[in-house]
């Protein structure tokens, strides 16, 4: 069964981590987003997939 407290805690941490760069260095975040928009969609898909796999591996070893 899904523990909603843990789910929303993890979701909150994702938002905090995602917001760190734009908060601490908006100019660097803007530059990074501009560069990311130049990356071909296929490569972005691979990066997203790799990121999900790393997250799954981390979750697997934490439990």
Q: Which properties best describe this structure?
A:
3 helices; mainly alpha; single chain; 63 residues
Describe the structure.
The protein is an all-alpha fold. It has one domain. It is 86% helix and 0% strand. Helix 1 (4-24) packs across helix 2.
The residue-averaged pLDDT reads 91
* SS field, number of helical segments: 3
Strand content: under 5%
The total tally of domains equals: 1
> What order do the helices and strands follow?
HHH
Which percent bin holds the helix content?
over 70%
Shape: flat
Low-confidence stretches: none
Topology of helices and strands:
Elements: H1 4-24, H2 26-36, H3 41-62
Helix pairs in contact: 1-2
What's a quick, concise take on this entry?
This protein is mostly helical and 63 residues long. It has one domain (4-62).
